[in-house]
Sequence to fold (119 residues):
Amino acid sequence: MAQNAPAPNPTNTAAPVGDGTFLLTIFLKHDESKTLPQINQQLKEQGYFKAFPPPGVQVVSWYVMMGIGQVVTLRVPADKLREVNRAIESTAWGGYRTEFYPTYDYKAAAEQMREQNNK
Fold:
């Protein structure tokens, strides 16, 4: 995880409605033609560890998915979307292939549905 990124808080990941933020899940897929030390060196040279995530963007979760790379979910203020995109384009490409997915927290709704349907 990036040094300046806040630790995930799994008990408080849902955003209040209308707070101007959204969740964004990013797949950072390893370039398998490179070793991990080569990837990390390239990311370092490109400034990735300093640029991502940009200030004002909260890390909700950051996992290693074996065989894929890393999966990061961010809480992004709407006006910071371009900064997130530019940080990835400028510093992560070459070490990672990327995919972006707008995301929402479904856990509470799923639990409620399970509870209602198990009665």
